[in-house]
Amino acid sequence: MPVLSQPEAMANTAPPVIILVRPQLGENIGAAARAMMNCGLYDLRLVAPRDGWPNPAAVPMAAGGADIIENATVYSSVGDAAHDIGFLAALSARRRDLPVRYADPRQTSSEILGHGGRSGLMFGPEASGLDNDEVALADCLVTAPLNPEYPSLNLAQAVLVMAWEWRVAALAATDDNGLTRQDADRDTTSTSRRDPAREPRRDAPASIQERDRFHQRLEAELDAGGFFISPEMAPAVKRNLRALFARAAPSSQEISTLHGVIQALTKTRNRNKSG
């Protein structure tokens, strides 16, 4: 792992993970790695790259980001790639007919800093972008205010835009003592009164993988209970349910509680069937 330069060390927050979903060209993966290195991001995760991995075409385009290419990890699904991520933003050139929360790159970068836990930025394949089921896994859908007649960015350009916005936000959030503004506000040596309502959450947010496992269990039990009356509407209903819980941003403890609720309800249903 590269040694952090002074600005990154001062920011006192983990840079977001970059997740490229089904990337098609090795050259674009390499260029994305270079953009990451420019802005101090180092964790690159690939989901089912089209031409396999490693890909020799990525190395020349990575330039100074060759270490990122060498240490990139490969996963078979978005859920696996986001196993330790508590806040995930999906990038898209177009708005979707989905019940998702929209944000721009600057808002998303601020939210990443405020989140405090592990975060991720997810980009789709060059030709088609992320599909709706992948977008449904995210906490928000990010669109940049570009020329509406041509809003599509090259994959590496999109990574650079988001990486740059994160870097600017991280530097702006750092004071002269190397503390983030948020940490400075929580400094116990301060004599000023703090508003408890503005304190960050103490409980760890559930990771994308934890939430995905819960959704899979919930959907299976709802299916067994006859909730999905129309097979044609089932995918849309499932996405709506996922979006509902994404907006709630449940913690790991809350996800465990929801599993307990499902277990109690299904136990009652099974008891009634056997009786």
The CATH architecture assignment of the largest domain turns out to be 3-Layer(aba) Sandwich
Coarse structural class = alpha/beta
Rg, Å, rounded? 21 Å
Report the helical percentage.
40-55%
Assess the beta-strand content as a share of residues.
5-15%
The neighbouring-strand order within the major sheet is 3-2-1-6-4-7-5
Which stretches are poorly predicted, pLDDT < 50 over at least 5 residues? 1-11, 181-201
What best-fitting shape do the alpha-carbon axes yield? elongated
CATH class group of the largest domain: Alpha Beta
* Total separate domains: 2
Please tell me the overall pLDDT: 82
Distance between the termini: 60 Å
What is the number of beta strands?
A: 7
CATH topology of the largest domain: Alpha/beta knot
The largest pleated sheet is described as:
7 strands, parallel
Q: Give the SSE string.
A: HEHEHHEHEEHEHEHHHHH
Give me the CATH superfamily of the largest domain: SPOUT methyltransferase, trefoil knot domain
Number of helices: 12
